[in-house]
Design a protein that fits this description.
about 140 residues, mainly beta, Thrombin, subunit H, 1 helix
């Protein structure tokens, strides 16, 4: 008697992804290369998948700058600077030659405006590790 073969698709994602399409700026860490432009496809707490015409290499350390929507952050839109490394690149067939790039975040900074007194606004930065084990 043969037993039925059951296959399960395993999803390695630890955090949920949010389909966010927003402009991103990408800078290769400690490089003289000019900043590249792209558009996010999805974002999670631990990373981002975005499209760009610029070629990146797996393993490169990058900074990604973008405006995090209020629906995701739970706060008014603010600029995030995420530092991470490229974990994959792949062609995106429907995008006219653009590449899909996956970045795993190592840490991120969030610029927030808050009133420092009644005449001025001060910017504060929150620096957070993308790894939930690091507090």
């Amino acid at each position: 008697m043969t037993s039925p073969k059951i296959s399960f698709r395993t999803d390695r994602r630890i955090t949920s992804r949010h389909g966010i399409k927003t402009p991103v700026r990408i800078k290769v860490w400690k490089s003289l290369k000019p900043e590249a432009a792209g558009e996010s496809i999805n974002v999670s707490q631990r990373g981002m998948f975005f499209s760009s015409e610029t070629v990146f290499r797996t393993g490169e350390t990058v900074e990604v700058f973008f405006e995090m929507p209020q629906e995701i952050a739970g706060e008014p839109m603010s600029e995030w600077r995420c530092t991470g490394h490229i974990v994959r690149t792949e062609p995106i067939a429907a995008s006219g030659g653009k590449l899909g790039i996956g970045v795993q975040f190592d840490c991120y900074e969030v610029a927030r405006s808050k009133p420092s007194n009644r005449f001025a606004q001060a910017k504060t930065l929150d620096i957070v590790s993308a790894d939930p084990a690091v507090k």
